[in-house]
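Hello again,

I reread your note about wanting to compare the complex against the isolated chains. To keep things tidy I'm splitting this into two emails, and this first one only covers the full assembly. Below are the input lines as submitted, including protein chains and any nucleic acid or small-molecule components. They are followed by the predicted structure of everything together. The single-chain runs will come separately.
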Amino acid sequence: MAGTGGGELKYEMAQNAYIKLVLHALKHKTSAVNGVLLGRTSPKNESLVQIEDSVPLFHNHLGLLPPLEISLIMIEEYYSARGLGVVGYFHANERFDDTELGNISKNIADHISRYFPQAAVLLITRSLKLYQKGKTAALLCRFVSYASMAF
Amino acid sequence: MVTKTEESQLNKLENQVDNGGGGAWEYLCLARKLKVRRSDKVLKYGLSILNDSRKRSSLGSDEWTLYEQVAVAAMDCHALDVAKDCINALQKKFPESKRVGRLEAMLLEAKGSWEDAEAAYSSLLEENPFDQVIHKRRVAIAKAQGNISVAIEWLNKYLEIFMADHDAWRELAEIYVSLQMYKQAAFCYEELILSQPTVPLHHLAYADVLYTLGGLENLQTAKKYYSSTIDLSGGKNNRALFGICLCSSAISQLARGRNREDKDSSPDLPSLASAALEKEYKLQASDKLSVLTSTLKCLRVSS
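Full-complex prediction:
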């Protein structure tokens, strides 16, 4: 699937996945947090990525490699048995008005998109923003209203 | 930084107070002594004591310390009116106090009036240039505004004067890690290890940073520091055990192409670490044991 300016790429996010990440961010209000998004491309529609689950990762030392490597290996092992793969990366910055996607997040997201080209990056800010990694596509975020409720 | 026993003691007290068992004052004293950041609880229980005039008078002169503690907690929870009330009460009692002046400047900072807060801190520092808290608040202002480079500069200046402030070294190291300046972060952790060589967390963090830097020498040093972490923490540190497996796998990957000048100093270290991890997982998370075994196999296969 080429995806370079062709059809639209859509993302569908399960409520469970979203809630876990928001709760993780709320629990650690004073630090940056990150996590991975897990899912698959929909078998019926190749341009729809279903994000079914998420795993919150860290709330401090986001830039350190050893915990990240171990956790990614373990997550892949666990979820490949359930038919899900890593489809994206989630990040929330330390300051609420910081809407930049930092270098660390960019590196991790790049790495993920090497294995799954339609990877998404979810950056929680004051209002929900969904960044697309490198491809020209439109994003569908069904939980924008939920996000404005939570913030 | 709190030890595990102190933290569990604090949590026990917190649970007790949460479930209506009393002991709020002990909890507040312990939180103040350990300098932990549990602002929502401190605010709730501090206010319950302060608003009850009987409990308040039974505190005696500790009442004012409690006012200060609740004021700071209120500012952290953004309950600025509560903070203002506490500061007013303190001002009435101690009209010319620098400590109260510091709280007022912190209130300006909490409101977001950065320039006013900065000016207030600078004037306070002129009178007392060795006030550690005010120096650190200035770093916090820079960080809150997003001027990370200014924050780093201030923090470095602070550390030149107050070299023994471990929390400040840790903060600086964390800022460097978040900016991916790993060499500088390694330097901070080296300072911490020099001054507190028996604290395993510093060894662990240093090893993590070295591994992230990469390169054969760094990996070998990282392996040594993971081992010292395990040694200092009595073998209970899972991150260090994982670190050893990761290091061994990465080292053998790097050393595969070239002739190894020295034989691997401890060839059974990774297998010992894996065995320890499996034992720990069997105890605490037996349903995830299969994930662990396949992860370890993955690391061994790539080595």
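For quick reference: Chain B has a mean pLDDT of 87.

B.
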